[in-house]
From TrEMBL:
Its main location: membrane. GO terms for molecular function: symporter activity. InterPro entries: MFS_2, MFS_dom, MFS_trans_sf. Residues 258-473 form the Major facilitator superfamily (MFS) profile domain. Residues 1-32 are annotated as: Disordered. SUPFAM superfamilies: MFS general substrate transporter. The lineage of its organism: Bacteria, Bacillati, Actinomycetota, Actinomycetes, Kitasatosporales. It comes from Streptomyces laurentii. This is Major facilitator superfamily protein. GO terms for cellular component: plasma membrane. It is found in: Cell membrane. Keywords: Membrane, Transmembrane, Transmembrane helix.
Length: 473
């Protein structure tokens, strides 16, 4: 008979203890999560991957090449909804903690996220009479609504590993499952969406949204079931009895040195990867001369990301999450610079480089997200954090990176004089714009990732964990 699940409270006055490994927090304190439950939970990442990938990959291109929105306005249209997210996510994190104290679960807020498919369909169903500025208003409004619903799902969903009574390596195992399903969602959306909208007309984008709305809803329903089963089997760590204001939670998060380092590193990592997604269609069309290569290179990027999660997991047990993350960041940085020669490399070489960057992308996601519960666990032992609050700040930072990458690229194109078109037509571009879209896809991501490495090297929690890494196995 399995051990009964436990629901415990993280007491606000708990004394600080040795960090992570070698103490009780590093060892599994409840049943090992079952593979079936993890699969159901991780299935929610398919929908998350869809929502993150398709707008990140196609929305800037959709605005500038189909709706006739100027590049700078298009970038602003993608940025402003994310600014709202910066405010909303920490609020939802604190709200999630309050709901967890009251009900011993976070599923109420998560359920609201099941309405996301409605905003998803509206986002890509721009009425025929809208173009330019009016089209930007439509897309921006739908993006705000979709991001709010996505946040309702994302914050409690990503807090779940911190809620479970499991140890250091088991938290990584949860995210190996999540990364496998996330990359499946990224792959399915990243390859199918460009194919479905290859004609470039509005109706193609609407059909694409309708076809992918079903998987988006199904993944949310499966995740809800998985969260219920995981917390029922492994136990649920209810946040401390004493509630704090959002302002207090934000201050506590920022004062946490390891959390701050991880957060800033992930901000620049997310900015880099989302810039890559937004710039890829421009790179394939104007540098490589074949827009159909967008789907090919997305497949090359995401297929290895789907497969290498277990490899990164084994590497984590040998060298730790910190070194693994730094390695992944270094590979992505080098890959970005390797693409700088552009078409002279040839499609085969470019594809190989993108494959390596995709493998690195899996490590970027796996290690950053599995280190977040480690930081939360260490902070809660000191009585200074609640999982929902930390996760809310984290997802707000992720949203910032999601918007900043495309915005920076769009601004670069606007300064260089890039010419927008409508209904998918191709037009000649000035030489400055062609140079900008190439350097913005290669050198700029390398610089941003170097900043991510700079901040990540200030993370120290894993150094202590490395003293006795196998204690949490």
């Amino acid at each position: 008979m399995s051990t009964p699940p436990r629901t415990t409270r993280a007491e606000d006055g708990a004394p600080a203890v040795a960090r992570m490994t070698g103490d009780a927090s590093a060892r599994a304190t409840g049943p090992r999560p079952r593979a079936g439950d993890l699969s159901l939970y991780a299935a929610g990442s398919v929908g998350m991957g869809l929502w993150v990938t398709v707008p990140g990959l196609l929305l800037l291109y959709f605005l500038t090449q189909t709706l006739g929105v100027p590049p700078f306005l298009a970038g602003t249209t993608l940025l402003l909804p994310k600014i709202i997210d910066i405010v909303v996510h920490p609020l939802l994190g604190s709200l999630s903690d309050r709901q967890a104290r009251r009900a011993s679960h976070r599923r109420t807020l998560l359920t609201w996220g099941l309405l996301l498919p409605a905003a998803w369909i509206a986002l890509f169903s721009v009425p025929a009479g809208l173009t330019g500025t009016t089209a930007a208003w439509w897309v921006g409004g739908c993006y705000v609504a979709g991001n709010l619903l996505f946040a309702c799902f994302q914050v409690p969903y990503l807090t779940t590993p911190s809620d479970l009574r499991i140890g250091y390596h088991e938290r990584t195992r949860v995210f190996v499952f999540r990364m496998a399903f996330l990359t499946l969602g990224l792959l399915a959306a990243g390859v199918s969406a460009p194919v479905l909208v290859a004609s470039g007309d509005r109706s193609a984008y609407t059909r694409m949204a309708l076809l992918l709305a079903g998987p988006l809803l199904l993944s949310g329903l499966l995740a809800l079931t998985g969260v219920r089963r995981l917390t029922g089997h492994c136990g649920f760590r209810v946040p401390g009895r004493r509630a704090h204001s959002v302002r207090h939670d934000l201050k506590a998060a920022w004062r946490d040195r390891d959390y701050r380092a991880l957060l800033l590193s992930y901000l620049f990592t997310g900015t880099t990867t989302h810039l890559f997604l937004a710039a890829l269609p421009f790179y394939t069309e104007y540098e490589l001369g074949d827009r159909k290569l967008t789907a090919v290179l997305m497949g090359a990027f995401l297929v290895p990301a789907t497969l290498v999660g277990p490899v990164w997991m084994r590497l984590s047990r040998r060298i730790g999450k910190q070194r693994g993350l730094l390695l992944a960041q270094g590979v992505f940085l080098a890959g970005s610079l390797a693409l700088l020669p552009g078409r002279v490399l040839g499609t085969a070489v470019i594809t190989v480089v993108v494959v390596l960057m995709g493998a690195a992308f899996a490590g970027l996601q796996l290690f950053a997200f599995s280190m977040l519960p480690d930081v939360v666990a260490a902070a809660e032992e000191r009585g200074v954090a609640h999982a929902g609050a930390y996760t809310g700040v984290w997802t707000a930072t992720e949203a910032t990176g999601t918007a900043t990458g495309p915005y920076v690229y769009a601004a670069l194109l606007a300064v260089a004089g890039f010419v927008s078109t409508a209904d998918g037509h191709t037009t000649s571009q000035p030489s400055a714009a062609l140079s900008a879209l190439l350097w913005g896809f290669t050198a700029l991501p390398a610089v941003l990732m170097a900043l991510a490495v700079f901040f990540q090297r200030r993370y120290t929690l894993d150094e202590v964990a490395g003293v006795d890494r196998e204690a949490g196995a």
